[in-house]
Design brief:
Elements: E1 11-16, H1 19-27, E2 44-46, E3 49-51, E4 57-62, E5 76-79, H2 88-99, E6 106-109
Parallel strand pairs: 1-4, 1-5, 5-6
Antiparallel strand pairs: 2-3, 3-4
C-alpha cells in the first residue's frame, strides 16, 4: 500500500471470497500483508482486522454476504479473486453504494 501522509488514519477494506481466504492469502499468505514490507511497520492481525501503529485499520469483508458491506466507508480497497466470488456483481454494487457518499476509495482488484 502507498505510504500515508503523516497523521492520516486510513480505513481499508480487504474483500475476499471467504473469511478464510482473506486470512490465509491476503493477510498471512506468502505475499500477504503480514509478510511484506518493513517489519517495523507491519500491522497486527486481531479478530478480522489489521491494526497499524499510526491508527489505520483494515477490515476483512467476506463476499459471501454482499449486504454486509453496507455502511462501510473505505479510503482504500483490496478486492482479491473477484472472479471467484459467488455474488461478484452484487459485491461490486454494494461497494459502490457504500463508498460513494464522501470520496470514492482507491481500489485494487487482484
Amino acid at each position: 500500500m502507498k505510504a500515508q501522509k503523516k497523521g492520516k488514519k486510513l480505513i481499508i477494506g480487504l474483500v475476499g471470497a471467504t473469511y478464510k481466504a482473506i486470512e490465509n492469502i491476503m493477510v498471512k499468505g506468502r505475499s500477504g500483508i503480514l509478510n511484506i514490507g518493513d517489519p517495523a511497520f507491519r500491522p497486527i492481525w486481531k479478530k478480522g482486522r489489521l491494526y497499524w501503529k499510526n491508527g489505520s485499520v483494515a477490515h476483512a469483508i467476506t463476499a459471501e454476504k454482499p449486504d454486509a458491506i453496507r455502511g462501510h466507508e473505505f479510503d482504500l480497497l483490496w478486492i482479491d479473486e473477484l472472479g471467484s466470488f459467488r455474488y461478484g456483481e452484487e459485491v461490486m454494487n454494494q461497494l459502490k453504494l457504500a463508498n460513494g457518499r464522501i470520496n470514492p476509495p482507491k481500489a485494487i482488484i487482484t
